[in-house]
Amino acid sequence: MNKKTRAIFFAVLAAALYAINSPISKLLLEHVPATLMASFLYFGAGIGLFGVNLVQKATGKGNSELPLTKKELPYTVGMVVLDIAAPIFLMLGLTMTTAANASLLNNFEIVATAVIALVLFKEAITKRLWAAILCVTVASILLSFEDMSSLTFSTGSLFVLLACVCWGLENNFTRMLSSKSPIQIVIIKGLGSGAGSLALALAIGERFGSPICIIPALLLGFVAYGLSIFFYIYAQRDLGAAKTSAYYAISPFIGTLLSLVIFRQLPSITFIIALAIMILGAWLATEDTSKEPSAV
């Protein structure tokens, strides 16, 4: 398996692992407040990858990875702050909209990541990827209105889109760290963002609901956040932020399918139209565009 193929495999694997986040979180949010839920998810990622790190050290593996230094501190701090905000916005959105809608809207992260990569980090964006961005944006607009006939905007969708923008910027910050140890990055992400979210949750008066839900939330965080981010960082090394995000686009479709099955929801006509446009956008984004002239 060459480097590019392996990177694509890691990106798709990361997407599949993250796909379970929205539907399972939607179930757990019936018993856990939104900000606390975000905290548990990141704590699960940090604690889980800390355990993986201990196993690697005991077996002598992973010693070749470069540690983070003071030079990367601004990106590291920015990554943690954005990782506190993004899942809180997502959890709030999930309390106000359907899990299927939220899963599909997560594709807006492609748009945010690509545009930020272009504007702030001067990453080249191909014409095909611009077309994909347009499709995803149109589909996201359709999904953001509860009633297309009266154009009633969905507050839940707005929170999901805000989460996508935060993660888009965070993806680019993480790209600047991708040559360093992925496990160290995820541990810092998990424990730092988890602690920040916990402090915020307690400050605004959230309290633990059913203690029995804490362990499932931690396990979900380990798989959907910890392992997903771990493989995502490896993919970024060879694909870049924009391209990795494009392959990651498969995640919302898996999450949407799981949501429709778990919650036995019948999709609306608007949802089906948005789904078709989103599939086209994801296909355009994941097509190999290395031979196309850059749009910038």
Topology, element by element:
Layout: H1 3-18, H2 21-28, H3 34-59, H4 73-94, H5 99-105, H6 108-119, H7 127-143, E1 145-147, E2 152-153, H8 155-175, H9 182-203, H10 214-239, H11 241-247, H12 250-262, H13 269-286
Helix pairs in contact: 1-10, 1-12, 2-10, 3-4, 3-9, 3-10, 4-8, 4-9, 5-12, 6-7, 6-8, 6-11, 7-13, 9-10, 10-11
In short:
The chain has 296 residues and is mostly helical.
What is the overall pLDDT average? 85
Strand order of the largest sheet: 1-2
Overall geometric form: globular
Q: Sheet bearing the most strands, described?
A: 2 strands, antiparallel
The ordered string of helix (H) and strand (E) elements is HHHHHHHEEHHHHHH
Estimate the strand proportion: under 5%
Distance separating the two termini: 31 Å
Question: Strand tally, please?
Answer: 2
| Helix content, binned percent | over 70%
Write down the Rg.
18 Å
Low-confidence stretches: 288-296
Structural class by secondary-structure content: mainly alpha
- What count of helical segments does DSSP give? 13
